[in-house]
Specification:
about 90% helix; mainly alpha; single chain
């Protein structure tokens, strides 16, 4: 019980720091990313609630990891957009090229995480399966 509470507190503090970073680093785009992230987390929690899943410490760690991966994807995209803007492209061109260039990296990252998740779920027990 105490570890779950500590996990929730750590998740909230981490989320506040991430939201602040995204807003400070990317301005309005960071705000949009934070909004999308909030919807993402709400959907995860809603799905867990709908399924009647019990929130465990490994489950909290999995949610935090998912948030981290989503933020990582946003950072990759936004940095690519910045690079394209610095290269003189228009906003629309920068967004289009930024998404295109970041996509392969994001897909590779998510496929790697999916493979690790499947392996952990397949061979893991107890808390390891809960994390996966």
């Amino acid at each position: 019980e105490d570890s779950i509470h500590a996990g929730k507190v750590a998740g909230v503090v981490g989320s506040i720091l991430v939201v602040a970073f995204m807003f400070v680093a990317y301005g309005f785009l960071g705000f949009l990313a934070n909004l999308a992230l909030a919807v993402h987390v709400a959907m995860i929690i809603g799905l867990l609630s709908l399924l009647g899943a019990t929130l465990t410490l490994p489950g909290i760690a999995g949610i935090v990891l998912t948030i981290g991966m989503a933020v990582d994807s946003n950072v990759l995209i936004y940095e690519r957009i910045r690079e394209e803007r610095r290269a003189g492209r228009s906003v629309i061109q920068a967004i289009d090229t930024g998404f295109t260039k970041a996509l392969a990296t994001i897909v590779d990252s998510n496929v790697t995480a999916l493979i690790a998740t499947v392996v952990l779920f397949w061979i893991g027990t107890g808390p390891v399966k809960g994390f996966a």
